[in-house]
Each structure stands twice: as C-alpha cells, then as structure tokens.
Amino acid sequence: MTETPPAAGSDRVVFAYDGSELAKAAIDEAGRQLARGRDALVLTVWEPFAVGFVPPSGAQLDAEQATGVKKAAEQTAAEGATLAETAGFRAQSRVVQSAPTWKGIVKFADENDAGVIVLGSHGRTSLADRLLGSVAGAVAAHSRRSVLIVHRRS
Fold first, then answer.
1. Is the distance from CB of 18 to CB of 53 less than 8 angstroms?
2. pTM (predicted TM-score)
3. Cross-strand partners of 2
4. What phi and psi, each to the nearest 5 degrees, are found at residue 14?
5. What is the spatial distance between Cα 82 and Cα 92, in angstroms, rounded to a whole number?
6. What is the pLDDT of residue 1?
7. What are phi and psi of 99, to 5 degrees?
8. Is 69:63 a contact under the CB 8 Å cutoff?
9. What is the C-alpha separation between 105 and 108, in angstroms, rounded?
C-alpha cells in the first residue's frame, strides 16, 4: 500500500518548539534555509503529568495541574512565535496536549497542511533514547511531511 504524499505547494512551516536552546537554534536555522515571509505555526506540545517543555523564565510547574501547564505551554509557544517572526516568518503560536509528543506534532502538521516540520534534535545517545527513540526521529519516521532536523553544533 502506497501512502499519498502531502500536496505540493504548501509552504506553511510548523515549528515544534519546546523552549530549549536547540529549539531556538532550529528556528534560526530555518530562517537561514527557508524563504522569508512564509506562514508558520509554532507548536508547543504538553503532556498531562509530564510537562515536556522548558517553561519561560524558569517557572516551576506541577505537572498534575493541567491548567497551569497549559498556560505555561501557551507562553512558551508565544515566545517561539516571537523568535520565528524575528527570523522572517509570519508566525502564530499554538499548543496541543498529546502523548507521546511526536504524535501530536505529526497530527498537527497534517491537520494544518504543513509543507515542512522544523525541530531540533538533542542527539541523545543513552540506552533509553535508543530504545524509545527521540521525538525528532519519531517525527521523521512517522510523518509524510518534509522534516528539517537541526542538530546541536559542536
């Protein structure tokens, strides 16, 4: 069975943004590699009972308090949208609740007809990471969309 590729011509960018330095670097790199002025959606995924992102300003969160976690995710996504605007994109922020994170990213990109998904890869190499896989690797493996993975610079 052959899957149909996404429609050609979609130039919307979905940034998977978790507030980490690598996620910020991914936005910068996309600004250098992709055409300026493209529409972008900056997505922060949050998981119940596991925050899954870096809250702005080092805020302390109780993952069991979904309202507070969602609000912090919204602030994180807004921060990413500001960075994407600075990098030359017409950006809006979005949040979704999903577990695992990669599924939320792939589903969101499909629902919003993304031409490309941009995210950073932390390049972890522990046994657990090899067994469970990374978010970036899972997105690349499961998405029908183009995926730009930005790696940590040495």
1. yes
2. 0.80
3. none
4. -110, 120
5. 9
6. 46
7. -140, 125
8. yes
9. 5
Interacting residues of 58 by C-beta distance below 8 A, sequence separation 6+? none
Residue 33 DSSP SS3? helix
- The DSSP letter of residue 50 is B
Select the more confidently predicted residue: 123 or 106.
Answer: 106
Per-residue pLDDT of 43-95, as tens digits, reads 999 887 655 666 676 666 555 566 778 888 999 999 999 999 999 999 999 99
User: How far from 145 is each of 6, 58, 112, 150, CA to CA, in Å?
Assistant: 6, 33, 11, 16
Which domains are present in the chain? 13-151 (3.40.50.620)
The label of the residue with tokens 């493209």 reads 38
Return the structure tokens found at 154.
């040495």
Quote the tokens at residue 64: 């069991």
